[in-house]
Structure to design on (225 residues):
């Protein structure tokens, strides 16, 4: 099992450009999440999904969009990139909502907006 | 008030000492509590989970949970330089399934 795979690992964008961060998991997890982590800070939830076709906003959804057409994939779309979106983005998945719902993380995508 | 607060760091301990990391949370309905370790430039990895009041031990790590005080802690015994990392406390709500993270405490273990 590859676990959670994110691409790209690094990306530099110009202000106003758009891009999609890809996330795929092969553990058949229903729950998937996108977090961002700014330097010296914890993880802030952007969007999450409880299953294919269902998504919901987290703490910091502005400027982002997601879709969940399959169990495996949960891409994050950045529209009109801004310097405030410079961050490290982590995709994560978990098997269940409650109980032993530990998160499995991808390796992260480091995005710089200039 | 933040939903999850961790003791401010950085924390520095000598090799072989006990490192104590603390976390408080505001949602009384929280049911699952996790400690993740994050090395610099890497993604978080789970080291401990705890769901009921009391202590849970796993090797050199002990997690303690007190739901009445809304407090969870992590003790690392016989600290090693390889334990030097940022430790993230995460709290999972019962109904939402979302994990909320603290800002992390950076631990340095000096040889």
């Amino acid at each position: 099992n590859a676990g959670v795979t994110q691409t790209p690992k690094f990306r530099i964008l110009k202000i106003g450009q758009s891009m999609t961060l890809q996330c795929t998991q092969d553990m058949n997890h229903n729950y998937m999440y996108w977090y961002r982590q700014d330097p010296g800070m914890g993880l802030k939830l952007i969007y999450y999904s409880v299953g294919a076709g269902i998504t919901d906003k987290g703490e910091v959804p502005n400027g982002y969009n997601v879709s969940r057409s399959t169990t495996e994939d949960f891409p994050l779309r950045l529209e009109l990139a801004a310097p405030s979106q410079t961050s490290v983005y982590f995709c994560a998945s978990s098997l269940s909502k409650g109980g032993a719902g530990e998160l499995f993380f991808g390796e992260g995508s480091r995005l710089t907006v200039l | 008030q933040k939903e999850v607060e961790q003791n401010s760091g950085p924390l520095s301990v000598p090799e072989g000492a006990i490192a104590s990391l603390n976390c408080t949370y505001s949602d009384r309905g929280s049911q699952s509590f996790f400690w993740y370790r994050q090395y610099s430039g890497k993604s978080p990895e789970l080291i401990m989970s705890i769901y009921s009041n009391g202590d849970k031990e796993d090797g050199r790590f002990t997690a303690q949970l007190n739901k009445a005080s809304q407090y969870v802690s992590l003790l690392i015994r016989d600290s090693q330089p390889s334990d030097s990392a940022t430790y993230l406390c995460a709290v999972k709500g019962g109904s939402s399934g979302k994990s909320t993270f603290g800002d992390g405490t950076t631990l340095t273990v000096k040889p």
Summary: Chain B has a mean pLDDT of 92. Residues 6 and 23 of chain B are 4 Å apart (CA to CA). The longest strand of chain B covers residues 30-38. The radius of gyration of chain B is 13 Å.
